[in-house]
Hints:
The structure holds 2 protein chains of 2 kinds. Helices cover 28% and strands 28% of the residues of chain A. Chain A has helices at 27-42, 64-73, 80-94, 120-126, 131-140, 231-238; strands at residues 8-13, 16-20, 48-53, 57-62, 105-111, 143-148, 155-158, 173-176, 180-184, 187-190, 195-197, 200-204, 223-229.
Amino acid sequence: MSAKLPYQLxxxxxxxxxxxxxxxxxxxxxxxxxxxxASLQQNMLPGITDIIPAYNSVTVVYDYMTVYQQQLxxxxxxxxxxxxxxxxxxxxxxxSIENEHDKKEIIIPVxxxxxxxxxxxxxxKSHALSIEQVIELxxxxxxxxxxxxxxxxxxxxxxxxxxxxxPRHDIPRPLVTAGSVGIAGVQTGIYxxxxxxxxxxxxxxxxxxxxxxxxxxxxxxxxxxxxxxSLLSFEKLIK
Amino acid sequence: xxxxxxxxxxxxxxxGLPIIGKQHEGFSPGGSMDxxxxxxxxxxxGNKKEAAVLEMHVPAAILxxxxxxxxxxxxxxxxxxxxxxxxxxxxxxxxxxxSTLSFNNPANGARIYVAVQGGFIxxxxxxxxxxxxATGHSFDYHFEGIGQLHALSxxxxxxxxxxxxxNNIRCIQGPNFNVLDTNEIDxxxxxxxxxxxxxxxxxxxxxxxxIQHAVPTALLSTAVTKGxxxxxxxxxxxxxxxxxxxxxxxxxxxxxxxxxxxxxAQMHIGSSFGITWVSIEEAESLLLQQESNLQQLENxxxxxxxxxxxxx
Lengths: 239, 312
């Protein structure tokens, strides 16, 4: 177990508190995030309505009135946010739970053809690589899902090989189609639905990321490997 | 038993309470923009607060009731014409089958909420929450049988004024408040913010003299909430509203307190307001006070309705 990381605790609203470990995107910090989430889930407090992991932070959303009722019962006159803060701090100091996030590896077929990977040529050129090399580098790694967010089912994955890391577009496109696979700096991700977006689009998957019951294919801790497919098999799969 | 949209308004949709607990999967909580009006409209007709309501931006839709029911509208301070009669907001109203309801321009407020007794019936294959409604759409409501019609209005009005403020919105400071220049911090309470036309249920863009700030080192995406004041690189604020994205990477300079979200939701495009910073302790006590007043009003509605229908 690594040494204790410093952290900051702050309210982001009168019904949400964030614990922020700080620092850049790293797997070690993200492990701490998911251990804290697991610990909080095991020691739930009435009134907590959501626990949201991000790269290096955990946000706890609570219903003020429910926590307030608890305070009344316990004859505690401290502000409600201090009780939630205390609960989070108790859990961050616990951290006895082993890293339990699931390690299932998910293979995602991706067509890297220029017709659907509309920025792959740009990405290749800006690194003086061939398109084949970009595909090779993007499919070589096993990525971890750091967090969900942005859109239902969108998964922030990383860490992209430095040889193909490319900043997002300055001006987002008004429409990126569902299934588009993109790169933004160290991150890679898939658009689960049509949306405006600024990531460099290098391919497209025929796989849906969210089913009709709203359950997600990719959740924090999932391991992801991209598998290159031809335009022909992409078109077959999409039908 | 349904309401039919005879002529659609600018943005009409069926809304419920926010869906909580799915933000970690990327689902925005959604729900009615003005949750106070949502609850009052429901209380006026004897519904639970969870019942779905019709949310309409102004100009609002023209509605046809196919069966008699008890309904109410709340939110924007407005009147409506029911066939030939004028009816008022924040009153329970009995409507006959075949009646048409059209809304007048509100004196104050931007969103109108309609509740019917028993609530709307949502069907997966027909109208779902957050669907934008168009002319010709109709959606069913429960009908509990009012029987002999006695009155158009039940004769009493809920006073909702105390729940709304228009000139300034109170906020707590956010984790990146320190990116503001010291001059800006000193002058902040004198600034005015105008709601831009590019505002919607996801967020309100605010126009002000650009806010001078330090460019922060790249921030990693973290969770954001309803009311978050995001500072864009151009020095303008975007306030996140009901359908907000779940995570964001802009500096968060503050958050609208829960007690003032409804007031902000009722401000229309082009109106302006100031921002007052309050402590989180103040935000908590304002929310507690508001919630207790709202519960009192809900109980009063319940009592008056019971009284009315037992006398009948």
